[in-house]
Amino acid sequence: MSEYAVEMEHITKIFPGVKALDDVQLRVKPGEVMALLGENGAGKSTLMKIMSGVYTRDAGEITIFGKKVAGDLNTKQAQEMGVAIIHQELNMCNHLSVAANMFLGREIVKNGRLDKAEMNKQAVEELAKLGIKDIDPDAAVGDLTVGRQQMVEIAKALLIKAKILIMDEPSSALSNAEITEMFRIVKELRSMGTAIVYISHRLQELHHIVDSVTIMRDGRYITEGKFTDFTMDQIIANMVGREITNQFPRDDANRGDVVLEVKNLNAGRMVKDVSFKAYAGEVLGFSGLVGAGRTETMRAIFGADRIDSGQIFLDGKEIVIKSPIDAIKNGIVLAPEDRKLEGLCTKLTIRDNIALPNLDLICGKSGHINKQIENEMIDKGQKSLTIKMASADVEAGSLSGGNQQKIVVAKWLARNSRVVILDEPTRGIDVSAKVEIYQIINKLKKAGICVIVVSSELPEVMGISDRILVMCNGRITGEVDAREATEAMIMTHATQFGDNAA
Ligand SMILES: Nc1ncnc2c1ncn2[C@@H]1O[C@H](COP(=O)(O)OP(=O)(O)OP(=O)(O)O)[C@@H](O)[C@H]1O
Ligand SMILES: [Mg+2]
Hints:
Layout: E1 6-15, E2 18-28, E3 33-37, H1 44-51, E4 59-64, E5 67-68, H2 75-80, E6 83-86, H3 98-102, E7 109-110, E8 113-114, H4 116-129, H5 146-159, E9 164-168, H6 176-191, E10 195-199, E11 212-217, E12 220-226, H7 232-240, E13 258-267, E14 271-279, E15 282-287, H8 294-301, E16 309-314, E17 317-319, H9 324-329, E18 332-335, H10 339-343, H11 350-355, H12 359-363, H13 371-385, H14 401-413, E19 419-423, H15 431-446, E20 450-454, H16 458-464, E21 467-472, E22 475-481, H17 487-494
Parallel strand pairs: 3-10, 3-11, 6-9, 9-10, 15-20, 15-21, 18-19, 19-20
Antiparallel strand pairs: 1-2, 1-4, 4-5, 7-8, 11-12, 13-14, 13-16, 16-17, 21-22
Bound molecules: adenosine-5'-triphosphate (ATP) and magnesium ion.
């Protein structure tokens, strides 16, 4: 019997217009956590979808526990052979209960009826194996935090007795406390002998759990080895194909006048008496733990959530923002953190996604779409963010995760805005594309725009901001000059009222 849980060799996959995988190999042993690394669009998710039977391969061989897979592999067969996948974009049925999701397609039936009691019992047992005792099997999945939803997905994998677990960017939307919890569970699964393929763009977290790495680039296999045999610079160089000398380029610009002033803003439960000033030619970072109220503050300023009280001034004049349209008219734009839910229409083309918020610019007085302006806009977005796509006329949802994120940012670049708010702009984005986004932020800043960046990654917020405001429990708890900031300084402000991340 082979020492590997799974071996993939010479895997090739072609989508219309894109060779997503070209002669790729991958192997992972039982009880091993292997990081699968590569830039956005490198083919990581595609390879894992082939392993789990979601996509069929055009060529190549898959061997699972020494058994060669003859012909196409479908999801059911993959499951039976022990493969479970937790997708990059969680796809659970939000309105169904925890237990119903775990047993989806494999419901337990007794006397011709669903045996809900038995399914609930088993769901609780599986969750308990992961050390989770406070998830109600009757709770609707949509009411759980993303972190908890992921725990349910992992428990579901245990339920089908998965021996190979694929985790496609599990940490990108989790709070720090949830990530710690997830790592604990991954280690537990490893000790039980599960083979784990772990995909992440948060390279600094890998050392906590990873044993080995496989690196891909542009649909090709580049190298593999023990994690500790690589330096971080070597990993990045293999992913990117060149060296990245400065991960956080920050240009200096002349700070101008106050552009945006927020006074005593209250909105819902998560925004309490927030006041701050943001200047032209400045990058203002918002740091804090997940759940501190940063996103809610930005949504209120953008008119996406109702403001209960407070004032907003633009260039010294008070403005009234009741809806995002008011905000956009005043030159305030927001790229939201959740691309799938709020940032993109995944079923529309890239072209339409970029055009939609800019119809006022594209249509002119006649109301007809001016193709030339539209094409220029798309061109500008694609070039400045190097979006990897076959054409602008494919569905936005067919792009790799990181490239979808770039579209969310790109659609706002077309406008001449006064205030650009970016909420977690680099979530799920690879190292080199991150640098591209930072350079765009620098460009905006140099053009005298006021840029507000919400980020949960401390090195990022410290590396790109000029000034950092820290929030905790809906309030601004501190301000630090980014050039003098330390992680400890920020964390002190971020936990002023206790850790609200849990
Ligand atoms: N269903 C599809 N139809 C057409 N093209 C696709 C489809 N799925 C993936 N692709 C293309 O295949 C390539 C590889 O995409 P994939 O999602 O595997 O990248 P990835 O390495 O997971 O990237 P990321 O880190 O951004 O998630 C990309 O160019 C992508 O646009
Ligand atoms: Mg992916």
